[in-house]
Automatic annotation (TrEMBL):
<dbReference type="GO" id="GO:0008270">
    <property type="term" value="F:zinc ion binding"/>
</dbReference>
<keyword id="KW-0119">Carbohydrate metabolism</keyword>
<feature type="binding site">
    <location>
        <position position="64"/>
    </location>
    <ligand>
        <name>substrate</name>
    </ligand>
</feature>
<feature type="binding site">
    <location>
        <position position="173"/>
    </location>
    <ligand>
        <name>Zn(2+)</name>
    </ligand>
</feature>
<feature type="binding site">
    <location>
        <begin position="95"/>
        <end position="96"/>
    </location>
    <ligand>
        <name>substrate</name>
    </ligand>
</feature>
<comment type="similarity">
    <text>Belongs to the SIS family. GmhA subfamily.</text>
</comment>
<dbReference type="InterPro" id="IPR004515">
    <property type="entry name" value="Phosphoheptose_Isoase"/>
</dbReference>
<keyword id="KW-0862">Zinc</keyword>
<protein>
    <recommendedName>
        <fullName>Phosphoheptose isomerase</fullName>
        <ecNumber>5.3.1.28</ecNumber>
    </recommendedName>
</protein>
<feature type="binding site">
    <location>
        <position position="173"/>
    </location>
    <ligand>
        <name>substrate</name>
    </ligand>
</feature>
<feature type="binding site">
    <location>
        <position position="181"/>
    </location>
    <ligand>
        <name>Zn(2+)</name>
    </ligand>
</feature>
<comment type="function">
    <text>Catalyzes the isomerization of sedoheptulose 7-phosphate in D-glycero-D-manno-heptose 7-phosphate.</text>
</comment>
<feature type="binding site">
    <location>
        <position position="64"/>
    </location>
    <ligand>
        <name>Zn(2+)</name>
    </ligand>
</feature>
<dbReference type="GO" id="GO:0008968">
    <property type="term" value="F:D-sedoheptulose 7-phosphate isomerase activity"/>
</dbReference>
<feature type="binding site">
    <location>
        <begin position="51"/>
        <end position="53"/>
    </location>
    <ligand>
        <name>substrate</name>
    </ligand>
</feature>
<dbReference type="GO" id="GO:0097367">
    <property type="term" value="F:carbohydrate derivative binding"/>
</dbReference>
<keyword id="KW-0479">Metal-binding</keyword>
Length: 195
């Protein structure tokens, strides 16, 4: 296999994954956008969490809501927070309680009834995201999971699951960020009529 074939195969796999998302997840993506929009319309906050690349996706999507998604869409800032962003909280909680609790501890601190927690996990087996979902439910928050493969242990825990029907982490993450962008686009349309 040469370098062109390596690149071509990954691009083709990405296209096929996104086609599968289009064919199987469109109603759930639309519902996720409606949930996020309603939460924000009521003045509530969206919290995001994930590990590794999913942590970066959590921060990325939160930033699109706080700042703006589409260039030229001038609007007010929206309350969104990535629970992966504060290194002092992450390291203190890991040291004092264990890494399993780094997100649930923050959900307890920042989450309120009516807020939304979006948990990202390509495997669906991230213990700290599972703990965050459990904490969010106790508080009375709405929950959405971005998952992959068979959904893992997280399947069915959230109010809404968005499960990418693939096993390869890279393809799942590419689709998660696409769905995150669509969610932001729906929010900007629903709240501000911005296209």
């Amino acid at each position: 296999m040469n370098l062109k074939e390596i690149a071509s195969k990954q691009i083709q796999d990405s296209i096929e994954t996104k086609k599968a998302v289009l064919d199987t997840l469109l109603p759930q993506i639309e519902e996720a956008g409606k949930i996020a929009s309603e939460v924000l319309k009521k003045g509530n906050t969206i919290l995001f969490c994930g590990n590794g690349g999913s942590s970066c996706d959590a921060s990325h999507i939160a930033a699109e809501l706080v700042v703006r998604y589409k260039s030229g869409n001038e609007r007010r800032a929206l309350p969104a927070l990535s629970l992966s962003a504060d290194s002092a909280v992450l390291t203190a909680c890991s040291n004092d309680y264990g890494y399993e609790f780094v997100f649930s501890r923050q959900v307890e601190a920042f989450g309120k009834p009516g807020d939304l927690l979006v948990g990202l996990s390509t495997s669906g087996n991230s213990k700290n995201v599972i703990a965050a979902l459990e904490s969010a439910k106790k508080i009375g928050m709405k929950t959405i999971s971005f998952l992959g493969g068979d959904g893992g242990k997280m399947k069915g825990m959230a109010d809404l699951d968005l499960i990418i029907p693939r096993k390869e982490t890279a393809r799942i993450q590419e689709s998660h960020i696409l769905i995150g962008h669509i969610l932001c686009s729906i929010v900007e349309y629903e709240l501000f009529q911005l296209g």
